[in-house]
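User: I'm preparing a small set of examples for a lab meeting where we compare how different chains pack in three dimensions. I only have the primary sequence for this one, and I'd like the structure in token form so I can line it up with the others. Please keep the answer compact; I'll paste it straight into my notes.
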Amino acid sequence: MFLVEGNKTIKEIPTSHYLINEIYSINPSELSLGNLTATEISPMELKKISFLQHPKDSVAVCELREELVETETGVQLILDGIQDPGNLGTIIRLADWFGISQIICSEDTADFYNPKVIQASMGSFLRVNILYQNLEKYLTENQQPVIGTDMDGTSFYDYKFPDNFNLVLGNEGNGIRPEIENLLTDKITIPRFGKSKATESLNVAMSAGIILGQIFNKK
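Assistant: Understood. Below is the structure token output for the 219-residue chain.
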């Protein structure tokens, strides 16, 4: 089981692949979900069971779903050791925004059922398929080009992206690990225009948003 918080996201769950087991709400009348009935609780009880510092209205207890591999088409994100739950949730939200249906995560990437990931994704986890795989094995067997982000790569403004490919985003501190870097078809980078050297790199979720914006702008 895992928790989903907030009426807005909870109302979207019945149209997804996830199943709700129980709902607890301070105002059950605000949730109309067919045969599902929310159990009324007090604001103090909600605060006790919520992972949020300031919970709003409801918490749903949902069932974990079996991982299902979808046929990769278009752009597919590959996450190599992303550790911060907020970054993972934001990347899932970006994937949903740009119509990317599947994200492949390394086995040491943060758990996407982490409440912070679910919260940061703002409901996008319901529409993006997340898989945890041995990346070296997966990318070796995968037929699509593998493009990775790297400080020494080609400027992504000049790079001609193929129609179908895997985009690899590396760990926040260490980047893409060597065994995955060896499998890259090409490396791209976001060129720096500012003169200050104090900013050494960009946040991985921020980088993902900038790169995806450029990719889909060219489409």
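A couple of notes for your slides: The chain has a mean pLDDT of 92. The beta strands are 2-5, 20-25, 39-40, 58-62, 75-80, 102-106, 129-133, 146-155, 165-170, 186-189.

User: Perfect, thanks.
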